[in-house]
Amino acid sequence: MESPHDLLGLVGAELGVSEVRSVSQADVNAFADVTGDHQWIHVDVERAKEGPFGGTIAHGFLTLSLAPLLLADILDVRGFTMGVNYGLDRVRFIQPLRPGTPIQGVATLVDAVELPGTDDKSASGVQAKASLVVEFADESQPCCVAELLFRYYA
User: Fold this and answer.
1) How many CA atoms lie within 13 A of 26 on its CB side?
2) Contact, 144 vs 92, CB < 8 A?
3) 87 — alpha (psi -120 to 50), left (phi > 0) or beta?
4) Do residues 7 and 77 make contact, with C-beta atoms less than 8 angstroms apart?
5) What pLDDT digit, counting tens, does each position of 84-106 carry?
6) Which of 50, 91, 113, 141 is surrounded by the most beta carbons within 10 Å?
7) Chain centroid offset of residue 62 CA
8) Residue 147's pLDDT is what?
9) Which strands form 103-116's sheet, in the order they lie side by side?
10) Is the pLDDT of residue 117 over 80?
11) Who wins on pLDDT, 54 or 117?
12) What is the three-state SS of 57-111?
């Protein structure tokens, strides 16, 4: 899309599906190191085999942190000077994500509005909300759903 303003006409539309990706155990371990969350269900491969999930699982917030990457696969916006993640309206971790499991994102544009400029006559950009379903690529079953707010500035 040539401009963030093109989003205004896409509200309600499914934007597409991301590339298939996976999270490795090394990714899970690195995330644990960064966040200090070394819960055994994430990092202790041997103990987790006997746990409730039959192996380690990715942190929910690690899965969520993939949202910008998955959305970038889907949404190619040009013609802006700066883009920022503005926040989240709703997040749910539906099913645990086992390392090595292929996932993909499916995005739908929920809302898009112009951001007011410095004077009342111009828009400084667009704020959009996308619903992103992170799903198991082989099953089309969700593991995480989130409503993402992001802004593009002119």
Assistant:
1) 0
2) yes
3) left
4) yes
5) 999 999 999 999 999 999 999 99
6) 91
7) 10
8) 98
9) 14-17, 103-116, 123-136, 141-153, 82-93
10) no
11) 54
12) CCCHHHHHHCHHHHHHHHCCCCCCCEEEEEEEEEEEECCCCCCCCCEEEEEEEEE
Sequence-distant (≥ 6) Cβ neighbours of residue 118 within 8 angstroms:
124
**Residue the block writes with tokens 């390392």:** 99
**Which residues are registered as beta bridge partners of 147?**
90, 131
Contact, 77 vs 83, CB < 8 A? yes
* 3 state SS of 138: coil
Q: Which amino acid is at 53?
A: F
Query: Residue 22 has which token pair?
Result: 């996976």
Look at the block and give the residue holding tokens 């070394």.
Answer: 38
CA 65 vs CA 28, 47, 52, 126, 153: distances in Å:
12, 26, 24, 22, 22
Average pLDDT over residues 77-84: 92
